[in-house]
Design a protein that fits this description.
It contains twelve helices and twelve strands. With 398 residues, it is α+β, with helices and mostly antiparallel strands. It folds into four domains: 41 residues; 110 residues, PAS domain (Beta-Lactamase, 2-Layer Sandwich); 79 residues, Signal transduction histidine kinase, dimerisation/phosphotransfer (DHp) domain (Helix Hairpins, Orthogonal Bundle); 164 residues, Heat Shock Protein 90, CATH 3.30.565. Strand 1 and strand 2 form a beta hairpin. Helix 6 packs antiparallel against helix 7, helix 7 runs parallel beside helix 12 and helix 8 crosses helix 10. The longest helix has 36 residues. Bound molecules: adenosine-5'-diphosphate. The site of adenosine-5'-diphosphate has 21 residues, from helix 10 and helix 12. Adenosine-5'-diphosphate binds next to helix 10 and helix 12.
Length: 398
């Protein structure tokens, strides 16, 4: 039918239908665009490859889009930022102000940023965080273009080592500075006020001598520790029989035992117990334990040194040397820290005994190097038992 042939009613009806069609098209088009936009806002399409790559990174890693919404993250990232949700704004869910600032800087400058982030809870951890822009080649899915990738590197072990080293240097210098200050003080006194006082000179010289001995012992212990640590990865391979070592150590400390009015009793089996070891180091370790028992447990009047054979945790044969004293013992809370360098239950008491606070650290390192361990049992008022566990020389090596 031609337009010419239509009456007015027909023309009106056709115009209405055309307007309706146009309106419908416009409407449906907008609806489709809205749905797409909302979908990309709520849960942006993330190419599976991004998810897979992020999932394969062992350290925390997070990908966000240019608008700051989370696109993808891996399990380690969820552990340090439990509020993360795909599609949600990273700036809110991350809860790491330093990192959020870095994201803003990357968005503003387009340049990669590095920040350090310190997490207090649930665990104290330090992270180095890199936030970098990533541009996908054009033609890829729109939502995958222009992303920011955040990777976290755990600096905690490094920090701990740094802290330990700083503490160690501070402790060692402090330990050396105290006797050094005493020496300087006495030298000044002897040069000045006590110049012509023979009695004072004798007294001061005796103190100076003991302070110098303390410094020498400290340096000696520090050097031994560092030497043992240097060789920590080398297992000693010389067969060493333990009974003669026990006897040598006890004989060498009889003088000290007499001074302290302590009796040392030794028990050893008839069979030889042989380990692969460094004789000097083992002597040094055992000396430390027996000397401690004599120094700190003297009030018990008796120290038992017992050599025996036993079964290690893994069932293998081991040698045990238990050094038991009947002195005041050690309160439970101190036991786990006794082998730390410079750790002392009673600092003044240890210094008065000429202690350096390094003895048990040395014992622990020697035993570690020998594949053994030190066990400490004690309770306040009940004496103390320090037991050396050492793997016996394997039968094949006999
Ligand atoms: P120190 O040079 O002070 O003796 P150690 O590392 O050998 O250093 O010992 C650390 C601390 O452990 C000592 O200062 C002391 O407080 C405590 N200790 C060690 N052995 C005993 C023991 N047998 N009885 C009680 N306390 C002990």
């Amino acid at each position: 039918m031609s337009i010419k042939g239509m009456n007015a009613t027909d023309r009106a009806a056709q115009g209405f239908r055309a307007r309706l069609r146009a309106a419908w098209q416009a409407l449906t088009g907008r609806v489709a665009r809205d749905v797409a936009a909302r979908a990309s806002r709520e849960s942006p399409a993330v190419p599976a490859i991004i998810d897979a790559v992020i999932g394969g990174i062992p350290a925390p890693a997070i990908v966000i889009d240019r608008d700051g919404k989370v696109l993808a993250f891996n399990v380690p990232a969820a552990e340090i930022a439990p509020a993360l949700r795909p599609g949600e704004p990273a700036l809110i869910t991350l809860r790491m102000p330093e990192v959020v600032d870095a994201i803003r800087r990357v968005a503003a400058t387009g340049e990669r940023q590095r920040v350090e982030y310190y997490q207090r809870v649930p665990l104290e951890r330090w992270f180095e965080v890199f936030v970098g822009p990533v541009s996908m080649p054009s033609g890829e899915a729109r939502s995958a273009r222009d992303m920011l990738v955040m990777t976290f590197h755990d600096l905690t072990p490094l920090r701990r080592v740094e802290e330990m080293r700083a503490d160690f240097v501070a402790n060692a210098s402090h330990e050396l500075r105290t006797p050094l200050a005493a020496l300087s003080g006495f030298i000044e006194t002897l040069q000045g006020p006590a110049k012509d006082d023979a009695a004072a000179r004798e007294r001061f010289l005796a103190i100076m001598r003991s302070q110098a001995t303390r410094m020498a012992r400290l340096i000696d212990d520090l050097l031994s520790l560092s030497r043992i640590e240097l060789n920590a990865h080398l297992r000693p391979s010389t067969p060493v029989e333990l009974a003669p070592i026990v006897r040598q150590v006890v004989d060498g400390l009889q003088m000290l035992a007499r001074e302290r009015a302590v009796e040392i009793r030794v028990e050893a089996p008839a069979e030889p117990l042989t380990v692969l070891g460094d004789r000097d180091e083992l002597v040094r370790a055992l000396e430390n334990l027996v000397e401690n028992a004599l120094k700190y447990g003297a009030s018990g009047k008796r120290v038992d040194v017992t050599l025996s054979r036993g079964a290690a945790r893994d069932g293998a044969d081991e040698a045990r040397i238990a050094v038991r004293d009947y002195g005041p013992g050690i309160a439970r809370e101190h036991l786990p820290r006794l082998t730390e360098r410079f750790y002392r239950v009673d600092v003044a008491g240890s210094r008065a005994q000429g202690g350096t606070g390094l003895g048990l650290a040395l014992v622990k390192h020697v035993l570690n190097r020998h594949g053994g361990r030190l066990a400490i049992e004690s309770a306040a008022g009940a004496g103390a038992t320090f037991t050396v566990h050492l793997p016996l020389r394997p039968a094949a090596a006999v």
